[in-house]
Specification:
single chain, alpha+beta, 7-stranded mixed beta sheet, 5 helices, 30% helix, 27% strand
Length: 176
């Protein structure tokens, strides 16, 4: 297995949108995504080109690769919280590659890169039970509900070895 998590490129846009649309249809993402595909495309291109989303918040979109094939996506977006934290905006794995550990690898890679620097928040839609449990297993604290969505937080860990077993893959921005 040759796993990489790389910043998204223009040629990844349709792949990312297809995973988000598929997830939204199943209740894992905001259902507004289905009707606003054009806005989502423009937001994604802004993130890729300028590092900011439509709200001018710093954002990064990622594509997960295994053995040279795209298997999943993730995104991180700045919050407006006073701690300067980031929100895990999405994690999705291609249906044919689910239940193979790629979601865990994506999350572990993101935590290894982001958690030493920033507190990470996450929002889980009601249908995202698997992600909710995965986040709790990796140290996210359940803060409560915002509507039906569950809100979680993982505090930044300055200078502490997280002890994550990230396996034999290269973290973001290497060989991508």
């Amino acid at each position: 297995m040759s796993f990489l998590l790389c910043p998204a490129r223009h040629q990844d846009v349709d792949f990312i949108l297809s995973l988000i649309m598929n997830g939204a249809r199943k209740g894992h993402f905001n259902s507004q995504a289905i009707s606003d595909k054009g806005l989502m495309r423009s937001d994604l291109l802004s993130i890729i080109n300028n590092g900011v989303d439509r709200n001018l918040l710093a954002s990064v979109a990622y594509v997960a690769w295994n053995d040279g094939k795209r298997v999943g996506i993730a995104s991180m977006t700045a919050t407006t919280k006073s701690d300067g934290g980031f929100e895990l905006g999405a994690i999705a794995v291609k249906p044919s590659d689910q239940d193979k550990g790629f979601g865990s690898l994506i999350l572990e890679t993101l935590l290894k890169e982001w958690l030493p620097k920033k507190t990470i928040y996450a929002r889980c839609y009601p249908k995202s039970e698997k992600l909710f449990l995965m986040l709790q297993k990796r140290g996210f604290e359940f803060l409560g509900f915002s509507g039906d969505d569950r809100i979680l937080r993982h505090e930044k860990m300055n200078g502490i070895d997280l002890g994550l077993k990230v396996g034999h893959f290269i973290p973001t921005r290497h060989a991508c």
